[in-house]
Amino acid sequence: MAPAKKGPKPFESGLSRVDNRLKFTSFIQVPPINQKNYYTEYLKRDDQAIIVRQLAEDLARAKEQKAQKDPEATVDEMDMDEKDEDEQEAAGSKVIVIHPGSRNLRIGLASWTFPKSVPAVVAYRVGDDEAAADEAARTYDLAAAAESAQFGAVKAQMTADFKERMRFYKRRVAANSQDSVIAFNRRAAPEEIPDHNDPYRVEWTDVSGAPKHIVGERALHIPPASQPRYRLCWPLQHGCFNEADYASSRQLMGDLYVLLSEAIETELQVPRRELGAYSAVLMIPDLYDKVEVSEMVNMMFRELGFEKVCIIQESMGATFGAGISSACVVDIGAQKTAVCCVEEGMCLTDSRVNLKYGGDDVTLLLGKLLAQAAFPYEELNPRVQYDWALLEELKAKYATVNDADIAVQLYNFYQRTPGRLTQKYTFKIFNEVMLAPMGYFFPDVFENAGKLRARNTLFEKSTDLYDLSLNNPYSEAQVALYAQYTPSPDPGLLHTTPAATAPPSGLSTPRPAGRAGALSQSHEDTPTAETPADGPAQPAANSSSNNTASRNLSTQAATLSLMDSRQVVAAPLDQAIIESITQASATDETRAKRMYENIIIVGGGANFPAFTHMLEDRVAMWKGWSSGSVTVMPTPREMDPTLLVWKGGAVFVKLKIATEMWIGRREWDLLGARCLQYKSLFLY
Q: Averaged over 56-69, what is the pLDDT?
């Protein structure tokens, strides 16, 4: 066999290695970083943030336009801080200030003196089956609700407190006052009033045209048995989104859009197609929900089409509206109460408190007290709109905390029902008119269960983008009140005082509000990563500081989880104010004296005669009479306290600092909610 023929060698066939200077890849090769000399300027200069660059460009464009109008003006004249009145008026005429509340929406142009108030309700046409279900859900027995054991126990404590206050101020109370009231009311009979003799008769809404939806005051005057039938929907409740009465998040946001757009067109006479030339100021709660704020701003840009949007916290707006720089703002609304200390126009974060009760709870409490006093109108049902309006009228006319006005007195009221003649009732009343406003200091008397039963069912909780932890605003005052007045659903989260050693708030002597240190001490046995549930682990050497930091982070995460839950904290109003000021003065002891002497009440939930005097007495009693005076300031220039927050927003947009807080549509499209960190006076 002949040997195999050998092939050519590699260098002869062209496979030899030749330096042809070709790269192994076409991608750019990044040389390694020298770790010994490493430096970067990323996001270390203001001009690297698009929002700051956009602001500088807008200011330069405004100066250029002003220079074109007045070529002889100097640079110093263009940089003047003061604006003339004409420019301020022109700026306010294109700005819409929106203050959404649980019951009413206050809206108006910033150039107006007072806003328009629109009930925040939308009525939708429904079928007979849905109307029958709504009618069954509207049944409510005031007398039966007032017979519960808890209500009786809290009322007994309120009555004892009332008698002690009357005795302290040397007011005589007859022993048989309550019996005489009940005996008279049981014999009272109504008197029919013809329509031509009733000057305040109600014009009920005509629905013969069967409109798809009705907004505002006209929705409240729809007869319950109208044809077609309508359902009342309240998109806002207790200062947040009403997720209990809606099936989807888009349905809720749709109602908010209908409410705002109808109010703008009807009350402000601004066509919807012209909103692109207008800017909006949105007033939000001090302890806001990030998801809700983002949804509201997104709706204003996407659906309503505003050019710019500015966000202001309610307490900060109240101080601007009152013309003061520092105060403890107590905002008592229809369904929520907020307390916050403001210093030099900035909300102190750890002093913010949000309580889920307000004027509506006082109205319902008054109805229960009247039912126990044999109220002559036995069909009184607070879930029917015209009966609720009657209770609101009785509260506005007769409720008071002035001890000089408490006596057995004879009153009358007019009950107006669709399809019937007006009924005139005469009745007597005693201490019910004072016990109802006292519910703010005994909140266990309110129906707190179920107020947040559907919380976070339609909208997700706000979480951090990186570690998915809850990142809604955190307040030490709110956490301390949760620890004292709310039972923990999980023993591993918060430890409250056992019921065997401390009575519930309102049933006996209220527990004094504590400092944050008391809360941290109550978490010493909370299971953490370093402390398992079966017993404390032996810490490693030099690790005590790490364990403390980890425990604090675990405590904050646990309390944030509890604050975002559906439990309602029932803290008395006086204790909430003391806790708020205590946390505000944790780093500055002189701040407490200023705050106690500058308490201002806003909102419409506390418009009772002498309510400020009772609040001063109770706050001074619990904090100590010898530690300084307590002063509740009146609203400036006799302004309606319900409009003070809106007025603050209208004043703020005319200041020069407001030019740095406008969020443009382009910025929102690029960054979304992240641009609020640059364009707001609070930490988003």
A: 80
Q: For 17-33, write each residue's pLDDT tens digit.
A: 666 777 778 888 788 87
Residue 566's contacts (CB-CB under 8 Å, 6 or more residues apart) are 452, 453, 454, 455, 456
From the list 429, 522, 454, the residue with the least C-alpha distance to 484 is: 522
Cα–Cα dist 573/469, whole Å: 31
Segment 568-581, tens digit of pLDDT: 888 999 999 999 99
Residue 596 clears pLDDT 70, i.e. is over it: yes
The pairs formed by 588-596 with CB atoms below 8 angstroms and a separation of 24 or more are 591/341, 591/343, 592/628, 593/628, 594/326, 595/326, 595/327, 595/328, 595/341, 596/328, 596/623, 596/628, 596/629, 596/630, 596/631
Distances (CA, A) of 488 to 148, 251, 482, 522, 566: 24, 33, 9, 12, 11
Which residues fall within 8 angstroms of residue 366, CB to CB, at 6 or more apart? 391, 394, 395, 399, 432, 433, 436
Domain ranges, ordered by start, for the chain: 40-79, 126-232+359-445, 337-357+468-526+556-642
What single letter denotes the amino acid at residue 239?
A: G
H helices present in 522-610, as ranges: 544-563, 573-584, 590-596
**d(C-alpha 93, C-alpha 483), whole Å:** 47
Could you give the CA distance from residue 604 to residue 326 in angstroms, rounded to a whole number? 21
Partners of residue 153 on adjacent β-strands: none
Q: Which of 298, 291, 207, 215 is nearest to 258 (CA)?
A: 215
Can you give the pLDDT at residue 518? 33
> For residue 521, what pLDDT band results from cuts at 50, 70 and 90?
very low
CATH topology classification for 337-357+468-526+556-642: Nucleotidyltransferase; domain 5 (3.30.420)
Q: What is the pLDDT of residues 261-314, one digit of tens each?
A: 999 999 999 999 999 999 999 999 999 999 999 999 999 999 999 999 999 999
What secondary structure does DSSP assign to 129-147, as a single string?
A: HHHHHHHHHT---HHHHTT
pLDDT of 123 > 60? The answer is yes
Residue-wise pLDDT for 432-472, tens only, equals 999 999 999 999 999 988 888 888 899 988 888 888 888 88
pLDDT band at 625 (very low <50, low <70, confident <90, very high): confident
Fold for the domain defined by 126-232+359-445: Actin; Chain A, domain 4 (3.90.640)
What φ, ψ does residue 309 adopt, rounded to 5°?
A: -135, 140
